Amino acid sequence: TSQRQYNFILVSRPEPSVVLVTLNRPKALNALSSPLFQELNQALEEADKDDTVGAMVLTGSEKAFAAGADIKEMKDKQCKFSNVFKNKFLENWGEIASLRKPVIAAVSGFALGGGCELALMCDIILASPTAKFGQPEINLGVIPGGGGSQRLAQVIGKSRTMEMVLTGRMVSAQEAANWGIVSRVVADGEGEVVKEAVAMAKDIASKSQIAVQAGKEVVNAAYELNLAEGLRLERRLFHGLFATNDQKEGMSAFSEKRKPNFTHT
Ligand code: CO8
Fold first, then answer.
1. Which of 217, 222, 223, 215 is nearest to 246 (CA)?
2. Most buried among 16, 61, 232, 242, by the most CB within 10 A?
3. One of 15, 39, 137, 234 is an active-site residue; which one?
4. Same domain, residue pair 112 and 175
5. Best of 24, 27, 29 to mutate for ligand 1, by most ligand atoms within 8 A of CB?
6. 239 and 131 in one domain?
7. How many domains, the chain?
8. Which family does the entry's similarity section mention (predicted)?
């Protein structure tokens, strides 16, 4: 996407249609400081606007996807409501969830606190066998603040969410897969989860971008709308897609037994 220099993330193009963002504060296990989050939002928003990009992958290191919000940054904010309120502390955390294009999280190692919440903001999570998910905020005298309690409850239900939020226990990759936090655990091996995520992103990017973005929108709506409204939204968007060239191309290509050439129009 850009040749911009970042301090806390790396941005690359492993495929022409895929942007890979790697959190890069190895010494702090990718603790999510405010400057890091600003860079992350900026890189993803740029990719979201770039017509040549179809999907994004977000990853960390082998040891840590992200070990949470930056505790050292937070610890001095105690009791300064005026400060955190006026500076909109951590308010930009939700921005990832409003991107149009899919973001795949490739998680190895620790995904704790804000790191777990960041993964949950992504559209698909792939885990390496080393992945560990947890909401350890309770051990710091606080609770999740980046959506963990709500997004986990939607995905794994009350009892498991309560256990995670109230005990802070870390959940293994396999357990996370059994619970539905991640879509699957990839094979063992360094870099494997990123390779898989990039391959999946490339596959998604080969589809009609309009259809992909509409698909993301309706699936997300399932978490916000009641069933009748969700079904209506899905049907309306489905109707709308018949006004695209990609629908005509996709269905013609199928009839003519050839690969579609989507133009994202
Ligand atoms: N913040 C800042 N620094 C961190 C963090 C963190 N979250 N996690 C690790 N580090 C630092 C350590 O301080 C250490 O630095 P140094 O070398 O300078 O001492 C370095 O990373 C390496 O860490 P460890 O030596 O501790 O490595 P270990 O392998 O021994 O342990 C652990 C790894 C278990 C992951 C351990 O580091 C740990 O428990 N980290 C904290 C995990 C945690 O509590 N996370 C939750 C943070 S709170 C949060 O995320 C709230 C989110 C709110 C979002 C609100 C949005 C609106």
1. 215
2. 61
3. 137
4. yes
5. 29
6. no
7. 2
8. Belongs to the enoyl-CoA hydratase/isomerase family.
